[in-house]
Amino acid sequence: MFIGLTGYNHESSAALVDNKGNLIDYYKEEFLSRVKGDKSFPKRSLKRLIDVNELDISEISEITFYERPLSAYITILQTSGKNMPKSLPLISHQCRNFNKSSVACFLDIAKTYPGLEKKLSYCDHHLSHTLTSLAYSPNQNEICSVVVDGFGDRSTTSISLVHDHHNIVELWSCPYPFSIGLFYSAITDFLGFQVNEGEYKVMGLSSFGNENSEIAIKVSKLIRWDNDKKKIIQDMSFFNYHVDPEISFSQKLVNYLGNPRNPFKQLLPDDDDFQYYADIAKGAQLAVVKILRSIFSYAYQITKCNDFLFSGGVAMNSASLDQLASLDFIKNIYIPPSPGDSGSAIGAAYYSYLKNNIDKDIFISKPSLFPSKFNSNIQRKLASKIIDSNYKIIAEDIKDIIERSADLISKGQIIGVIIGNSETGPRALGNRSLICDGTNKDAVNFLNTKIKKRSPFRPTAPVMQESIAKKYYVVRDELIDCYKTMSATAKCKEGSESLNFPTTHIDKTARIQIIEKDHFLYKLLDALKNFNIHLLANSSLNLSGDPTSFDLIDSFMISSRSPLKYIITDFALLESIK
Q1: Reading across the β-sheet that carries 23-28, which strands appear in turn?
Q2: Beta bridge partner(s), residue 122
Q3: pLDDT tens-digit map of 249-301
Q4: Half-sphere exposure of 440 (CA within 13 A, CB side)
Q5: What sign for the dihedral angle of Cα 212, 214, 219, 225?
Q6: What is the pTM of this model?
Q7: CA separation, residue 34 to residues 38, 241, 249, 383 (Å)
Q8: Rounded Cα gap, residues 187 and 301, in angstroms
């Protein structure tokens, strides 16, 4: 058995790969700690992997951490040293927190499972990303891997050629501190959203921006691609993330753009300054898309590959994918369901597996989108008193559950779904979801603002069968795999009804999900055809600011704190009687 770990910098996680190369279990630490974006050492996730799978320490061949801690630590200190004395706050922070950084991984494993630390190895950060995305790709030979994130070990962006699992060659990289991911995070910070959490809000806000506005153009000039030198150009005097642990942008950026947004005030479309901030978001989005197109073009130039793996935190920028796929040399883009650091635990586990399996003809079977083991029967027993006193069972047979749920949805109801194993990535794909009629504006608005308590400018994703997707949206063959994990937006077809759906962004796009035939939601959509409903609005089963629900107790907490009335489980359709 092989374990991969991530932690300390972004979302922590742990993954388990068996001796045949199958991903058999995976947990994000926030699933279990209920701390959004938990980046501590993933002790709960590691313990659950071992306990649920009844592992003895002797059965674990190797445990791999997703980056090389000393390399990452030294790179930051070296860059800080070049910016003295301005960088003293960051140097002081790094030194004070040395034992709390990823350097502590060895000791934390030793404290949690003594002896397991002797089996610890380290994988290059961007290689972990590449191996994660490679596992989900149907093509695993002679394929180009593009990794774009904030920072990893020594670089922020890289291009590699995957000849096969044992021969992955990095051909180009961008050194820290020049970073597309950290640039976008700095703009996220400027716009009053939480770094490492609010980037998707910036992406949603950008839909409202005017790309020809003066402020959008100014932002887009802050970072660019130099086509002659094949490098990212960024004026670091506008940014502080490489010299300050607290503030990611400098006073120069404030002088350049104006006052940053107050993070303690909700941003609403009717606000006087809403358009100003939307235009800033638009400028950041324009810059990112333009540079990504240049990087992919250069990647094609040096690899001659038409198939691409795309990973790293920036790969979660679903609004960029449609424009990337329009490049004439691209045949396919494959993105793992969790392209950020938390998903890299999967790549780290595969790194150990591959080290111990030198077969050149190896092929990794595509992992499930729902690998996090979850026993509904145990959960039902643990929550029996809550169910008995707070809910009534209105359907138990699966056919009856589907029919009753379809009827409720047709009447404008919102339903929580907690079935099977939990999703790998940050996007709810139907196992931990809130769903309603995707064409009912009142229902979608109620889900978004009354239950989720989200910002009104953030649209909800539509989920549908493939035939319906092709009816309403411009579905690109190059991204067909991405649509299944809600990783790419699609343009509405001209004159289509989808232009008026409440799940459609103001820029006439939607982050669609094409549901697989074997999923519960596919069967539910079949039943909804009787009510002339062909798509569902789908959002994660949580309240804004909380982690997505992992177990039944989490979903009951949401119901107790919101107007959510109905919950679909593996054993019944429940109705709250509170």
Answers
A1: 23-28, 13-17, 2-6, 62-65, 120-122
A2: 65
A3: 999 999 999 999 999 998 988 899 999 999 999 999 999 999 999 999 999 99
A4: 23
A5: positive
A6: 0.95
A7: 8, 28, 30, 18
A8: 31
